[in-house]
Amino acid sequence: MSDRLRIRAAGPAIANPLLAALLRRMLGRLRHGRLVCRLPGGVCLEQQGPLPGPDAVLDVHQPRRTLTLLMHGAAGLHEGYIAGVWSSPNLPALLTLLALNFTPAPPSAPLAGPRRVIARWRHAANANSRSGSRRNILAHYDLGNAFYAAWLDASMLYSSALYAAPEDTLETAQARKLDLVTDWLDVRGGANVLDIGCGWGALARRLGAEGGRVTGITLSPAQLDHARLFADGMISFALRDYRDETGLYDRIVSIEMLEAVGEVYWPTYFSTLRALETRWPRRAADHYHRRRAIW
């Protein structure tokens, strides 16, 4: 299996030499799978890596804009897809290949330092103080429940699913994640449960069905409206910041909440959890992680 770069041209050479250099450099780093880049004019760049991986195709429709967006890393890649600057006949295969092969630019890379300074300044402007958290949540989650219902599973879970096989549906993978969390928490017998960042209430409903007395809190009025449709004697929901929660709980669950808290507030977050716990508590937390280089 060859890992040499192949270039097939049915038309003129790549018009933008900077884009050509960037694509060749990207393809030269390929270790897993096979990537084909198709450009206007019939130019096709192809690279087969030495290790197994998916076969993927990147179709470039607007070379100049592609160059500009690629220089902005993952965010630029996302924006380019939305704008139709590039596409792929098999997007999951392409994203899998990119995740296997490419890491963020190191801190020593050109422009990496200034970009990080700008990114941190923007992040600081959105700090998750009490007022900042409410503002950030409103901007993100109150786009409307219909928007999220269009692409989430039927239970409206907005967190990472647990896949056992590539052919699993989203519903199957989310149900598996709920099973795992529910089994770990073991709320049978009427455990008092706090669900921080309860979203649209899917986990709270499941824990209530298993016998737990559940309080779910969120900062999103839209999420609260939906969650309260399912409230009953075992489950209640409130619009409340975790820092304002009182009482004692046997179980505390927080699914993909830490990243919304903000690193500067992590000590406050964990000290709040300790203050809310009974003597023999059990916690369940699920967080996603990103390399600091792309924060």
TrEMBL record:
<protein>
    <submittedName>
        <fullName>Mycolic acid cyclopropane synthetase</fullName>
    </submittedName>
</protein>
<dbReference type="Pfam" id="PF02353">
    <property type="entry name" value="CMAS"/>
</dbReference>
<dbReference type="InterPro" id="IPR029063">
    <property type="entry name" value="SAM-dependent_MTases_sf"/>
</dbReference>
<dbReference type="InterPro" id="IPR050723">
    <property type="entry name" value="CFA/CMAS"/>
</dbReference>
